[in-house]
Amino acid sequence: MSPHASPNDHRRYHYLELANRLRILLVCDPDTDKSAASLAVNTGHFDDPVDRQGMAHFLEHMLFLGTQTYPKPGEYQQFMSRHGGSNNAWTGTEFTNFFFDIDNGFFEAGLDRFSQFFICPTFAPEWVDKERNAVDSEYRLKLQDDVRRSYQVHKETVNPAHPFSKFSVGNLDTLADLPGRDLRSDLVAFYEQHYSADRMGLVMISPESIETQLGWCDRFFGPILNRNLGTPTLSEPLYRLDDLGIRIQIKPVKETRKLALTFPLPSVDAYYDKKPLTFLSHLIGYEGDGSLLSLLKGKGWVNQLAAGGGISGANFKDFGISFGLTPLGLEHVNEIIEALFGYLKLIERDGLQAWRYDEKRSVLESAFRFQERGRALDTASGLVLNLFSYAPQDLLYGDYMMREYDEALIRRFLAKLTPHNLRMTIQAPEVSTDRLARWYQTPYSVSPITEAQKIRWQQSEPAPGLHLPQPNPFISTRLDARTPALPADMPACLVDRPGFRLWHLHEHLFGVPKGNLYISIDSEHAVRSPRHIAMARLAVELLTDHLNALTYPAELAGLGYQIYAHQGGFTINMSGFADKQPLLLDMILSNRTLGYPDPARFSEIKEQLIRNWENQSKTRPISQLFNQLTSLLQPNNPPFEQLLRHLRTIELGEMPEFVAQLFANVHVETLVHGDWDVTEALELAALLERHLGDNSQPSAETRRPLISIQDRGTLIREQGCEHEDSALLVYYQSRTVRARDLACFTLANHIMSSTFFHELRTRQQLGYVVGAGNLPLNRHPGLIFYIQSPVAGPQILLDAVEEFIDLFPLAMLEFTEQQWQDSKAGLQAQLSERDANLRSRGQRLWVSIGNKDLGFDQRERVCEEVGNLSRADLVRFITQLRSRTSDRLILCSYGQGHEHDERITGQFIDDPKAFRLAAATFEA
């Protein structure tokens, strides 16, 4: 059968169930450049044996390490990478999901390899020992992660008989051999007890016909054994009576303050067609004028509010309402909760109206009708869980359905949002704690909420100033895409004069009444000094906060926007239905000078930004090295610690003059892309000039220098990180931005990355976070190799990287001619991949403008150069990366307990500022 599809979706769909009861959704997409498959198993960490916690996750890892048909570990990943593909998997509470994509011509061969995971894995003993170390590294990677740490507290405060309480990741302790039971025998037993065709769902996407794909299903997935396991069931409740009415306090690693209120509910899966909780989330989470968030922000207590999130499973659903607290808000938690229950009472009295439901439904219907095609991999992995949740006819529509307004049903759920059905969690550095959570050593405490407090909250009335949302003026009324009179494939420059340039493309490929609008405002004033950069970033935060209540209805109606600072000034990016974007842009530009921010709000936004930047020093080491790399090489992107010194001293009185100066001399670059004709594009240009013209003089584009590391040999910068793991990042920089150099860097990464991962992560077991990548900075391509390791210090990691690079030219000589040509063809297929949707096409065009690729053909030129590269060319390129002769930048941090080895030789960068001042630069 064919599920109900969007009228704008021209793919063919077919649902079936194989003889072995494997559920399958086939998608025929003639326009896809990649084929993809995703197979989900209705098994997750809930099924872990009590004495083998982390087993489901460990099994997911092991399935990638060889099958009887394809026994060589790493071959699967190398095959996918060589043919332009990617692969991954995840393990959740009740599901494990495996997925890959690949060039269309190799999909059949990819399915052959993929399906063997579920038919004949080898579970080779030598890899069992190695991979449990990888799982342990993954566990250790998140020891300082506040999300994982608070998740463990959640597990320790539920019914211990419910499987949610289990430790999901696993480590060397839970995966150790037991007396009379080695890990491998338990692994095989777990696989045989839980992996069965009747617990599996598969989605395949390919340009091949449904008939061809049906043949592949029978051939590759028909042999999966049906053990007739049936659907797993949960009988124990997630929470006992004692687990409700409690206050949990957690001390985080980072300086964050959050209040999370959780209301336990039964499973709501059966109501996906009516979405009662979606409707309630819509009202509670409203952020516009008169909203609960607006009230609490005005008091200086709260920065953020989110409604509707929370864990869910076969027999439970948590309805969560969370608040981002200010330090002052931490002192007023009871009043915040009181205001919430007052607002819930307002919803109960006046909010349950059919027109509100219909408005939300019309937004979802438009989203379904005009949903944009995503990458095949994202589509497949996103749809596969629907096979377990929705009726076959609703597999595509289920996420968007709001069939009818059922007030009785909504009231039933609203009635459960009471103080007597509540768990509250506070995360803040100031809280007192008396327990440590297992595995992550999270400090926390648990205490009962008093009956008197519950009654006070229950009796609260709506606060003055609260009111429910008005009809939304931003809901689009132009729902038919127009066809351009003269279709074009690249933007045309409609306006090009000093200080202002506007590009326009009336898109004809996707047939949606949407658009992308990019406006980059270059202002030398924004980046004149580190202090100016700090002020510009603060100005963006203040503007975003000021706009939040004004623009929230637009976001509800399917319009989105971002405002972000960059190396030349700042950018406004808008997306969504085209007919309402001018209204939103006018609103944003009308408020661009910030007016006169409330002093208390200014202080809170500034303090929030200070906390965010301070918390960067508590991120994982490899993230800190990436931050250090960009700040070291991009003078217009100073390190957080330098910006912090200036941010702390900025006063409110400085901001109006600074913001006025931001717009005094500007260069504006704009892309109008989507369902806009030339006249409408010029009207947008006039709107921009009307807002900016009176007080702005035209200026040149802001310089974006990049520090050159050429002819410097090995440069070394150490970063201090308080973490058990060490980390290393090695960066190579291109001298030019020529297409041939781009091709060399891109092809080297394409060929080396999967082998590098397998060698250092899987075989040598140096760490869980291992990778190679192509990292362009200011148009210059760059090649990076990085590792974060719990077992080795920077010198050992560098030795491993150097050995890999030094030996790789020999490995390249062992490539067969077919492997060499396949590798090049795989990269060329990636470079030639068509844009999946309007948004991705708009992003690519905007990047081209930023890269001065004004012919919009750099991809094609690089693709051609890849085809021209010989094996000798690439061997010569990789040979130049050898440690003793290359120009490179090494960034490293020493983990606690790893020796501070001074054997790394090169020029140490002790003073980054002096290094930048003395270095040559590339100009962009």
Automatic annotation (TrEMBL):
Any single GO CC term annotated in Swiss-Prot or TrEMBL for this entry: cytoplasm
Start and end residues of each Coenzyme PQQ synthesis protein F-like C-terminal lobe domain: 747-846
Protein origin, superkingdom: Bacteria
GO biological process: proteolysis
Keywords assigned by UniProt, alphabetized: Hydrolase, Metal-binding, Metalloprotease, Protease, Zinc
Family matches, as Pfam families: Peptidase_M16, Peptidase_M16_C, Peptidase_M16_M, PqqF-like_C_4
Every Peptidase M16 middle/third domain range: 368-645
Listed cofactors: Zn(2+)
Membrane-spanning intervals of the chain: none
Gene Ontology molecular functions: metal ion binding; metalloendopeptidase activity
Domain Peptidase M16 C-terminal residues, every copy: 184-362
EC id: 3.4.24.55
Enzyme class, broadest EC rank: hydrolase
UniProt keyword Metal-binding, yes or no: yes
Peptidase M16 N-terminal domain mapped to chain residues: 23-160
PANTHER family assigned: INSULIN-DEGRADING ENZYME-RELATED, NARDILYSIN
Function: Endopeptidase that degrades small peptides of less than 7 kDa, such as glucagon and insulin.
Family note: Belongs to the peptidase M16 family.
Name of the protein described by the UniProt record: Protease 3
Lineage: Bacteria, Pseudomonadati, Pseudomonadota, Gammaproteobacteria, Aeromonadales
